[in-house]
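Entry 12.
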Amino acid sequence: MLALFLLVASTHFAALLSPGPDFFLLIRTALAHGRRQADGCAGGIALANLLSMLLVLLALGLLPDKSAGLWTALQVLGGGYFAYIGLQALLTRRQLNLQAGEQAATGSWWRGLYQGLLASSVNPKLPLFYAGLFGVLRDAAIPSWGLALVMLWMTLVVWGWDLALVRLLSHRRWRTWLQRQIRWLDRGCGALLLVLGGWLLVSGLGDIY
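Predicted 3D structure (tokens):
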């Protein structure tokens, strides 16, 4: 159980390290409106992740216990999705251009909360990502309290990382390091996603055949 948690947690955190839409939303908010609004945006992103996890669990809980075919299909779909974004991360040659500058002092925390919640809630990749993760945990027969701890952990990790990111963006040394290491971050994320995706595909296809 501990090994499974470490795999899921490390994959989730690696996905956070690879810059995506939420990352660039935080950058724009911090530079245009300041740390206060960016902190609210971080809270909104974390809340959207929690709501997405709850909706995924609700949807999965509505599936009847005998619907093994649906669970297998979900497992294969999640594995294919993880493998796809893992390959994308491995093959990408993304470059970041983080312009140096003073962060604005104005901004509303509540506006940032709404901004982050809205932006992440309409991201269709978020529920698919968590559906794949919860498919892994279901196969391991994780109890309800274990799922609750996993959800709390992932929500706090999203929130804590985004808050830290807002503060690190104000340091030129960090911006320079991130611009230099972005390719390695993408490759690390891609490798972990490929491992989890391959596991899901092998397990799901094994149930079929």
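Annotation: The chain is about 80% helix and 0% strand. The chain has a mean pLDDT of 77.
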